[in-house]
Amino acid sequence: RACGIGMFGSAAGQTECGTCPEGMSTGTVSIVSVSLCVCASGSYHACNGQACVVGTDSPLVSGFCVKCPDGMSCIGTQTAPFAMVEDEWHKQPRVSPGSMALGATAYTCAGDGSACPGAVMGAPTAEMCSHGGGGVACAECGAGLFFDGERCADCEADGNVMFPVFVCIVVVSLVTCVVSTLEMRGYQVYNRAWMYSLRGKCLCLSVLSSVFTLLQVLALFEVSKIEFPTTAESAFFVPAMVLSLQAVRFECLATAARGN
Known about the structure:
15% strand; 3-stranded antiparallel beta sheet; 34% helix
């Protein structure tokens, strides 16, 4: 008689069936050897290359099956939902769309997750990440690309219109600082009136610096897709994005400089 799922028979025509080791199953009925037992769904056999062919490694070895990594799924195919086997190969854990994996560690991707289409653990970067991304959460972009908070985008298509605004802010700040610190009266004599004036200007510069820092923090909230409270969003969204260093996209500037 044929042995059922999770069982095996060592010879044709035998009447007794053996049971696969604990935590293992089979992809089909009529398995004739314990060597063809595979890991049950919820675990997997860590292997590479030809070692992933069912029957190559002995399932009797300690640690043959490993618990499915956090953030991944270890579910068999539709024809064998309870066994991690696919076309006579040990099936590997899969990362769901919106996440990616480096080794056995899964990472949630930013924004809508479109940079991470989902793939089998250990897949090449080109399969694990889309839009030219790579690295942790597919947020590391190659030359000519920048990370827009959700995926890698083309620098040339974007145009980097915030760079002139950033340059103007830096120039105005530097000029104000230089003028404030070098201003003198009379024959290069620092008098009390000048000191009072300088103190007031230094105070203004300190306030400007604090405001700039605050807006940068708010911009990081926006880039990280952290939602503002409804009462504060309308007041801070526009100025935060105008002064955001993320909008300047230095990676695009570096690419342009190398091209020139």
